[in-house]
Amino acid sequence: MIHNRLIAVILLIILISGTLLYVINQSPFGPVLTIAGILGFFLFNRKE
Questions:
Q1: First vs last Cα of the chain: how many Å apart?
Q2: Three-state DSSP class for residue 14
């Protein structure tokens, strides 16, 4: 259970960092990280 929570926290950090990268630097990798974080989060939650 701790392992699952850790993965969820890591995905949230990726999601937030992607958003911040896009807002601050207008980096093209921002939306990619954000989408990857969202997809990973939903796929991970569905697997449980």
A1: 10
A2: helix
CB-facing half-sphere around the CA of 27: CA atoms within 13 A: 13
DSSP state at residue 1: -
Tokens found for residue 12: 């949230």
pTM exceeds cut of 0.70: no
Q: Residue for token digits 């989408």?
A: 35
> Which positions ≥6 away from 31 have C-beta within 8 Å?
18, 22
| CA 33 and chain centroid, separation | 6
The answer, yes or no, to whether residue 22 has pLDDT greater than 60, is yes
